[in-house]
Amino acid sequence: MDSFGAFLGPLVAPAVLAVAGQAFDAVLVTSFCIAALGVLVLVLFVRDRHDERPPARPASPREALTLLRVAPVRRLLLAACLLGFAVIGDGFVHLLLQRQEEVSLGSFPLLAVGTSLTYLLPAVPVGALADRIGRVPVVLSGYTALLLVYPVVKDGKPYRSADVNYWGVTFTEDDNTFYATMHTKGHRYLVRGDFAARTVRTVRDRVECPSLSPDGTRIAFKAPIDGDSTRGRRLSVLDVATGRVTATAETRSVDDQAAWLDDATLAYAQQHDDGTKDLWSVPADGSGTPRQLLRNAHSPAPLGGPRVAPPVSRAGRGVPSRSGARPGPGRSPRSRRPRCTGTPRRGGPRRRRVR
To answer: Residue 9's closest CA among 123, 111, 96?
Structure first.
């Protein structure tokens, strides 16, 4: 009866709201009337069965505590406490599912309906099974199944957290696969995403502002020096196939998303104490020395190679991407190339393009 009422409640509430013109007090009044009717039925039609034995004297709290001296009672109490700690309220599970699956608020009550229906349908057959094989195996089987559900809810879905932040996006030539920086829980991860499938998977920790090489085999990025970003960031290159990291010859801290001038050379900005920036280049294989390209320039976007979030024209027309071609049918340009510093900034000088 309890499960049946819990199943009907979330179904009746939207119906009452629809009839009452979204007046929530109507739901409360309806619930009170149904509860009062239930109490009235108990009072009028339910009769208590009296034994012929004289009523026993109520036990005092001290006498109740003496039950703890009985070993089976202690075991039962300990088992109840442990199983209680292992149970999470249905409401918390519903909130996790609502956040992970982006369930709308209008459909959220259906989670409670499904839970109640799950309790209701197997109640009779599981009760009959408990009468046949005993209650202990059935109870333990239920808790085992419950423990198997929790890791699926937590880890069986794509990771979601309120502090997740993305930046430094770089697309491959298929206009669908991309790499980016994901920051969460104090860590910066290199992630690989599938735009069409709307999925993102972590690839490597401590990678910031990735930039894919024109041949798609390497990723330039900022690596925290000795794992501590407060000490600066070293411009490095990751081999996508082998996972090998090569530090470039640039030993100064770099706070920019590097761009590939070709398959062998990186371009990046270096900031002076007065806030001005110069554009530099360095070989990607760790050899050579840094070379200054331009003064008072930053955020290079050479024409050629994979795109790093190319600009979008305000009129909705295609603009030249980093590959030099305008987007064709079904290929919409992406957002503007971000300044890859990990913190949002506005304004700033106009960018100069390098050919």
So the answer is: 111
